[in-house]
């Protein structure tokens, strides 16, 4: 499941492969843009905003894509075999003499005028990894609806952009609150620290191949393989207290928590 750091890494790979080079191949396999042809245009840059990717090309156009649950962009050297999935899952192909970028299973793919990018991403709250990061606004947004469960509020990209299901569970653990605790019930210093922690976690992982929220010191005695506090660790001992980690759905997606370390309602 892509989170803001994954999307940022994808933007980096696409930028390295495409930016500053003329497109010699362009194939958008969605009905609305099937006839669009970007060949002959230079790719200017590729940026991420929260979990959205914006590929800007010469002539004031932006290819907007979103990875949602299992979309991916893969970059291949010219002539290399594409291995990202079956051909019918390919939604976009952009290439130049050296590289080909292939977008698989992209649930959102649209061509916009660059000046209209705000229509695609203008609803986003401050981007944890973006130039517009603003912890004060993020905190205000997060607490705007005091009765809202913490897990929901963290995932809502209009509050702050870049947190997916993994960071949601990890941040609740670090705040010692269950994902169902109303945000208004978080002590004020905890809420402020949560926003800072979110920024630190995404920054720490922006270039890492494997997402890590623990540190060797905090997960002491549990070995270097324990990279996450609770996510995906159902029935395994909490790294802090040893209590078995629990799981349940929140908004139809699994979430994880330690019943001892985290206080608040459980569903
Ligand atoms: Zn615990």
UniProtKB/TrEMBL annotation:
It comes from Streptomyces atratus. It catalyses: 2'-deoxyribonucleotide-(2'-deoxyribose 5'-phosphate)-2'-deoxyribonucleotide-DNA = a 3'-end 2'-deoxyribonucleotide-(2,3-dehydro-2,3-deoxyribose 5'-phosphate)-DNA + a 5'-end 5'-phospho-2'-deoxyribonucleoside-DNA + H(+). GO terms for biological process: base-excision repair. Keywords: DNA damage, DNA repair, DNA-binding, Endonuclease, Glycosidase, Hydrolase, Lyase, Metal-binding, Multifunctional enzyme, Nuclease, Zinc, Zinc-finger. Residues 2-130 form the Formamidopyrimidine-DNA glycosylase catalytic domain. This is DNA-(apurinic or apyrimidinic site) lyase. It is an enzyme of class 4 (lyase). One of its GO terms (molecular function) is zinc ion binding. It holds the Pfam family H2TH. Its EC number is 4.2.99.18. Its cofactor is Zn(2+). PROSITE patterns: FPG_CAT (PS51068), ZF_FPG_1 (PS01242), ZF_FPG_2 (PS51066). It comes from the Bacteria.
